Amino acid sequence: MAFPPSFYRWRPHPWHGLEVGPNPPTLVHAYIEISPFDRVKYEVDKVTGYLRVDRPHRSSSQPPSLYGFIPRTYCGNRVGALMPNAIGGDHDPLDICVVSERPITKSEVILNARIVGGLPMMDSDEADDKIIAILENDNLWSHVHDISELPEILVERLHHYFTTYKMIPGQEHRVFIGPAYGRAHARSVVEAAILDYKDEYGD
To answer: Under 8 Å CB-to-CB from 33, ≥6 apart: which residues?
Structure first.
């Protein structure tokens, strides 16, 4: 039996087996690990590609948007160099938050996301940027092309979530997030993460 060219006999790894997107660094694929309805932090297992329970959220804060990563990206030296005082990237795929009008309750989905900005997060002195994007064909947010066009409260909620989601009572908090940046810098971060991936894993 002959399979069509796009057929996968085995499930591709969501980090390494999917494409970056239709038109990076403007339009990328996002693999979603967490929905706004999740009270547990899920993270893709780097060996198997399946979702693993990382930890339950300690606080009442929930993610204000879809949250996942851009396939075939890696936060290495190039990403780290774009963030002042960072010693490097966090050695993970580049994180992305995707805004959608309609509730998307499922994780482990792939969608097209248009880059509009990001949050410069540093965790334990490593760059851990949170790219912010819009669901490409969203009926309400399709006019947004830069983070400055989003409601301030939405960006504020994303900032608050990432500032607090790793807090553990009695332990030093080593997360710092600076002011949000716009589309131009976000594209530079995505481009750097694509090149970092090629350095680490090849084409």
So the answer is: 42, 43, 44, 51, 67, 68, 69, 107, 108
Q: Is 203 exposed, middle or buried (0-12, 13-18, 19+ CB in 10 A)?
A: exposed
Q: What is the tens place of the pLDDT at every residue in 33-45? A: 999 988 888 899 9
Residue 157 has pLDDT above 70, yes or no: yes
Spell out the long-range contacts of 19-24 with Cβ–Cβ below 8 A and sequence spacing 24 or more.
19/71, 19/72, 20/70, 20/71, 20/72, 20/73, 20/194, 21/70, 21/71, 21/112, 21/113, 22/112, 24/70, 24/190, 24/191, 24/194
Listed in sequence order, the residues at least 6 apart from 164 whose beta carbon sits closer than 8 Å to its beta carbon are: 59, 61
Distances from the Cα of 98 to the Cα of 84, 86, 116, 124, 127, angstroms: 25, 25, 10, 25, 20
Domains (range + CATH), the chain: 27-166+176-201 (3.90.80.10)
Quickly list H helices, the chain.
77-81, 152-164, 183-201
Q: Is the pTM of this model over 0.85?
A: yes
Single-letter residue type at 147:
I
